[in-house]
């Protein structure tokens, strides 16, 4: 299982494959039912930003106040370097109930399906379920134009977003999740 989410486009994709050697295939695209924050990474607690970057599921919460919830490893290694050192924030989930102050909410019926797939993947030995969160769908003209305009005079944001695009492009070309590392400056290095 592999999950991709697109903030501007308000979508979450679930990709699956039956065997390790197979290529990923799109299982389903879900609507993110509420958007929080703007384009750009989450950098501090209380900024209402949905993070952008490369994460994985760390928690399965069947008793969440938001119906069901899959917790992400925010802040990741990059976030810990680039975010507010004292209050980077935490508690980022994919969950139901259509409410958000920085999470990725879907409908209750959608989270039931996503949670079931993730639980099945974990029970079948997948300990690392990657979740990539992008600002936009880079291959959708309207989305990329918005991205291009939004980052035009924001050099550090544009540089960060292009690191994400590199991973997006690699997956699009290979249907394999790229290996993502973080350098000492907090930049993503895509292999």
UniProtKB/TrEMBL annotation:
Residues 1-134 form the L,D-TPase catalytic domain. It comes from the Bacteria. One of its GO terms (biological process) is regulation of cell shape. The keyword Repeat does not apply. PROSITE patterns: LD_TPASE. Pathway: Cell wall biogenesis; peptidoglycan biosynthesis. Keywords: Cell shape, Cell wall biogenesis/degradation, Peptidoglycan synthesis, Transferase. The active site is at residues 95, 103. The keyword Cell wall biogenesis/degradation applies. GO terms for molecular function: carboxypeptidase activity; transferase activity. Belongs to the YkuD family. This is L,D-TPase catalytic domain-containing protein. It comes from Hanamia caeni.
